[in-house]
Write a structure and sequence with these properties.
The chain has four helices and 44 strands. It is mostly beta strands and about 700 residues long. A hairpin with a 2-residue loop joins strand 25 and strand 26.
């Protein structure tokens, strides 16, 4: 009898029948079943381990702390000195209370879906936050009970360019020796329809001595405003008695969109104190010589839509500016676009520009600065340096001297690919920081394509094949350009969290690839909607080209063509300027047809917070999950399922020595993400 190599008899079977021995599957099928059984056993053990009772001893001897500003402090540290929740007991965290505002739009009743991205502040023992409908709400921080709510009555029937979203509010309290007649404690807030409001923090009523009956119209002095396209989505900052506010401007509509002015107002009266335009408008303005007269007159945007930071002792506000209009063609705006795509330090009391540092010259990639500048003290060669830390969409992190704007570590101007589009004048170099090194890959080649099968990998290569692809800063082209990092790549508005004592920065990043194509305006009508010319369209009126783009290059299965992870969480040593650890952030279990907990990540919006006990809390991905990680190692220590993705930055506080530490996050999803949107604000704490 013929024997197999194993020495056992080879049994005869009918063609196509499964291989069996003693009633058991053999070969690959048996291996698959055994592997599946092993996974089930391991998952069961993990569930049993995580669900077993955990005895927790709550330590009440640690510090108390509030969260009085959007970023924890005015420098945007996203750091808390609290230590009650630790790596040892975090697994016992449970929901302490939940508040629902009712402010949800899924697109069925109103044209714009909501994105609940707010981070509450804790001011005078009350929580204050804003909703996607621009309502402001005050809660009891230990019970979640609503104390008051104010509705400015925005027009919900409009189509808003930035979804319906709002990231938060600011506060102000008058000095005891100079208390105003009304509203000695104020909540200051910008609405989706561009009004600046001052509310009595105690009652929620408009402050009558601020502006006109409590409101200032921000649409004045910014050019022609298209309804729903000029908004305030990030909180203002208050420096001494000056309220400073930026704006969000809808992209790629035309050259002369709304102007991206940053303005300072008197916090008591609402009087305009100053206005600073990132585009120099006359020969008397600094930077005029770097613009053409026509470009300076017509070009809009350059706005600061992300959260601002402030250093009151220096009387400085730090504004992260975006690109000037439109994003993908700059023939009508030759030059670097000075002050756009820059960290700009402004004198808070006067609006005077003190310094600026540009992170992208003549932006053609929508690489606006979306992250709040983080003000922290770093050590360089043993010396303490007060710095501004600026994450970017490119995966670059620039660390700048806070007084001068000079790089703390060298930044090199390197040659980059140049445009072949008629009428375009690309800038020959771009700034590359040396420390930290780029935290995002800078090129994506066909041999790096990822897919579940050879078929979808070949389809991804086919989609790439006709696109210009020369690495980062490859300019838009008529044949189409692969963009990596993508338009949602690197760090976005969630920004970074910094622990100055440990000298560590933590940030999350997206790693996907996108594409963009310029189409001559005269041929657009006949090309529109044809294969290869489908995607998000920007008319770019005032230029010779229409823009089409896709935020992510996808395989036929709907998965990114880039290799996972598609989002990461990273820690960086700020003294050495080097990464410490990096891990995948998030899984695809809520996106896949079956709940597969593969740690592939997703687009990430929102950011982390750090506690002194050595924890990192973050949601930020397209997954209904909120997590805690070990700051030292990146190990995941705890997670909780949520009713919707927490695409917002959390916060934490503890009111009293005998009280609990709470961690609060908005679980509301994102209007452009495939999962549901919601209105949940959830507080977690250790059990009694």
């Amino acid at each position: 009898m013929k024997r197999a190599e194993s020495g056992q008899p080879e049994k005869h079977r009918a063609e196509g029948a499964p291989e069996r021995e003693g009633g058991r599957p053999r070969g690959p099928r048996r291996a698959i079943l055994l592997a599946t059984a092993a996974v089930v056993v391991l998952l069961s053990l993990r569930i049993a381990w995580n669900s077993r009772p955990l005895k927790v001893t709550v330590d009440y001897s640690g510090p108390t702390a509030s969260w009085p500003y959007y970023g924890g402090n005015q420098g945007g540290h996203r750091y808390s000195p609290l230590t009650q929740i630790t790596p040892d007991n975090v697994r016992a965290l449970e929901v302490a209370w939940t508040y629902r505002s009712g402010d949800i739009s899924d697109g069925s009743q109103y044209p714009t879906r909501t994105s609940f991205q707010a981070t509450p502040i804790l001011f005078r023992e009350r929580l204050y936050f804003s909703t996607p409908f621009s309502r402001v709400i005050a809660l009891d921080p230990e019970t979640g009970k609503e104390l008051w709510a104010y509705d400015p009555g925005i027009d919900k029937s409009l189509s808003y360019s930035e979804n319906m979203t709002s990231r938060g509010v600011a506060s102000w309290e008058a000095p005891a020796e100079d208390t105003p007649d009304s509203c000695p404690r104020r909540i200051v807030f910008g609405t989706l329809d561009a009004r600046l409001l001052a509310l009595d923090a105690d009652t929620g009523e408009l402050c009558p001595d601020f502006g006109v009956a409590g409101e200032v119209d921000l649409t004045m002095g910014v050019g022609t405003v298209d309804p729903g396209r000029y908004e305030v989505t990030s909180p203002p900052v208050v420096v001494n008695e000056v309220v400073v506010v930026g704006s969000a401007v809808g992209d790629n509509r035309r050259v002369d969109v709304e102007r991206g002015v940053i303005r300072g107002f008197d916090v008591r009266t609402g009087e305009t104190l100053w206005s600073w335009d990132p585009v120099p408008r006359s020969s008397a303005d600094p930077g005029w010589e770097e613009w053409s007269a026509e470009g300076a007159e017509r070009t809009g945007a350059g706005n600061a839509w992300a959260p601002l930071s402030a250093d009151p002792e220096r009387d400085l506000v730090f504004a992260p500016t975006g690109s000037v209009a439109p994003d993908y063609f700059g023939g009508q705006r030759p030059g670097t676009g000075i002050y756009a795509n820059s960290v700009v330090a402004l004198r808070a009391s006067t609006g005077e520009r003190v310094w600026h540092f540009q992170v992208v010259h003549h932006d053609l990639w929508d690489y606006d600065i979306g992250s709040q500048p983080t003000l922290a003290t770093v050590r360089k060669d043993g010396q303490a340096v007060d710095a501004v830390i600026q994450p970017t969409k490119m995966g670059f992190v620039f660390i700048l001297n806070r007084d001068t704007g000079e790089p703390v570590w060298p930044v090199e101007e390197r040659p980059v690919p140049q445009s072949d589009v008629p009428g375009e004048e690309t800038w020959p170099t771009q700034p590359f920081p040396t420390h930290p090194p780029p935290l995002h890959p800078l090129e994506f080649t066909p041999d790096q394509v990822w897919g579940l099968t050879p078929w979808d990998r070949s389809r991804c290569r086919e989609a790439m094949s006709g696109l210009r692809n020369e690495g980062i800063f490859t300019p838009p082209s008529l044949e189409g350009t692969l963009q990596f990092p993508s338009i949602v790549g690197g760090a976005n508005w969630g920004g970074a969290a910094v622990d100055e004592d440990r000298g560590v920065m933590v940030l999350n990043q997206t790693r996907t690839v996108s594409w963009v194509r310029l189409v001559p305006r005269e041929v657009w009508p006949e090309m529109r909607g044809t294969p290869g010319y489908r995607g998000e369209v920007g008319m770019q009126e005032g230029t010779p080209y229409v823009m089409i783009r896709e935020a992510i290059l996808l395989s036929p299965w709907g998965l990114p063509c880039t290799k996972p992870p598609w989002s990461t969480l990273m820690a960086v040593d700020l003294q050495a300027g080097e990464p410490l650890w990096e891990i995948p952030l998030g899984s695809i279990r809520d996106l896949a047809p079956v709940p597969l907990n593969f740690r592939f990540g997703s687009i990430t919006l929102g950011g982390p917070v750090i506690t002194a006990s050595g924890l990192v809390f973050i949601g930020a991905v397209v997954e209904k999950a909120f997590r805690a990680f070990d700051l030292e190692t990146g190990e995941e220590l705890w997670s909780s399922r949520l009713p919707a993705p927490a695409m917002a930055t959390p916060m934490t506080y503890r009111l009293r020595p005998e009280g609990k530490q709470y961690v609060v996050v908005a679980a509301g999803g994102h209007g452009r993400a495939p999962l549901n949107v919601s209105d949940h604000l959830i507080a977690f704490a250790l059990p009694d």
